[in-house]
């Protein structure tokens, strides 16, 4: 049994703005190799992202760009099963490699959040974030460090394999099946309420700014992949999708009231992921192309 786990940190809401990559290789339930590097995203650092991971523009001075470390990513990922916790890291890799017009790693992908939801009943519908799952399996790590998070994703998969007896190939099939195979009726989509079988069920999403697609269509996409769509940012919000042009305005200045409120809640410790509309649409595509 061999697989690779990967995680990234980004400098701002643009998912291509990778500022750190961590990769961990596992064989027979043991960590056998690892690699981590700070990355120069050639982009600005949003204070909110710095608050989350602690990486600053000064830290990445002299660091390589994504295209300069691509050879290491290929060495680890090409021809392997690659895992990450939720699809965000996979999307970031895709966006960053596309930014530099280099080929994507040739890997099979497995989302350990989907694995966790099918392994532990208590987190089937909520609470399946990386930190919470690691608390359940008793694995301690330093969150929001790319290598630490990659190792944690790997440990979640190992714990799930141990608990269920399902191997890697079994899990590639299992994540495509309903969480509760005996209750397939829960798969119906309810407008503006998250599809219970969606990959991002339990996420509460808000749209703000000028979107290229109609809000109605955007809400349908979000609900289809499991997100509850809210009209405003609240203490329950977990994702804020911002129009691309609004994200780029003066590196964060002149933001909408929803954007400012979300950043205020993040500063108080609430976990809210801020995405551009284009990255949201790519996330939908990746989620619906499960593996």
List key phrases describing it.
9 strands, 5-stranded mixed β-sheet, Nucleotidyltransferase, domain 5, 4-stranded parallel β-sheet, Rossmann fold, alpha/beta, 291 residues, 11 helices
Write a brief caption for the model:
With 291 residues, the protein is of the alpha/beta class. It has eleven helices and nine strands.
Write the layout of secondary structure elements.
Layout: E1 2-10, E2 18-27, E3 30-38, H1 47-53, H2 66-77, E4 81-84, H3 88-99, E5 108-111, H4 112-117, H5 130-137, H6 146-164, H7 168-174, E6 204-208, H8 215-224, E7 228-230, E8 239-242, H9 244-248, H10 257-267, E9 273-276, H11 277-288
Parallel strand pairs: 1-4, 4-5, 6-7, 6-8, 8-9
Antiparallel strand pairs: 1-2, 2-3
Q: Can you give a write-up of this model?
A:
The chain is of the alpha/beta class and 291 residues long. The protein has 2 domains: 2-174, Nucleotidyltransferase, domain 5 (2-Layer Sandwich); 184-288, Rossmann fold (3-Layer(aba) Sandwich), CATH 3.40.50.10190. It is 37% helix and 18% strand. The chain has helices at residues 47-53, 66-77, 88-99, 112-117, 130-137, 146-164, 168-174, 215-224, 244-248, 257-267, 277-288, and strands spanning 2-10, 18-27, 30-38, 81-84, 108-111, 204-208, 228-230, 239-242, 273-276. Strands 3-2-1-4-5 form a 5-stranded mixed beta sheet, sandwiched between helices. It has a 4-stranded parallel beta sheet with strand order 7-6-8-9, sandwiched between helices. Helix 3 (88-99) packs across helix 11 (277-288) and helix 5 (130-137) crosses helix 6. The longest helix is centred in the middle third of the chain and has 19 residues, at 146-164. The chain is globular.
């Amino acid at each position: 049994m061999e697989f690779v786990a990967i995680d990234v940190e980004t400098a701002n809401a643009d998912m291509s703005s990778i500022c750190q990559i961590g990769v961990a290789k596992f064989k027979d339930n043991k960590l056998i190799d690892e690699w981590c590097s700070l990355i120069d995203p050639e982009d600005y650092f949003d204070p909110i992202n710095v608050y989350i991971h602690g990486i600053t523009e000064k830290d990445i001075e002299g660091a390589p760009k994504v295209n300069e470390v691509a050879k290491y990513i290929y060495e680890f990922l090409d021809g392997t099963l690659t895992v990450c916790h939720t699809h965000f890291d996979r999307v970031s890799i895709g966006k960053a490699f596309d930014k530099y017009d280099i080929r994507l790693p040739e890997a099979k992908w497995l989302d350990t959040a989907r694995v966790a939801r099918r392994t532990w009943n208590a987190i089937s519908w909520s609470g399946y974030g990386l930190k919470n799952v690691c608390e359940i399996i008793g694995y301690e790590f330093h969150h929001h460090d790319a290598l630490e998070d990659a190792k944690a994703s790997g440990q979640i998969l190992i714990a799930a394999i141990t608990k269920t007896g399902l191997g890697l190939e079994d899990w590639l099939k299992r994540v495509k099946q309903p969480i509760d195979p005996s209750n397939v009726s829960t798969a119906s989509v309810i407008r503006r309420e998250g599809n219970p079988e969606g990959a991002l069920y339990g996420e509460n999403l808000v749209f703000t700014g000028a979107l290229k697609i109609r809000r109605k269509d955007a809400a349908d996409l979000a609900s289809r992949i499991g997100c509850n769509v809210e009209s405003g940012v609240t203490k329950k919000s977990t994702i804020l999708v911002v129009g691309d042009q609004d994200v780029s305005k003066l590196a964060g200045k002149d933001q909408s009231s929803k954007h400012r409120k979300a950043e205020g809640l993040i500063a108080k410790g609430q976990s809210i992921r801020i995405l551009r509309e284009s990255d949201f649409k790519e996330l939908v595509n990746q989620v619906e192309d499960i593996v």
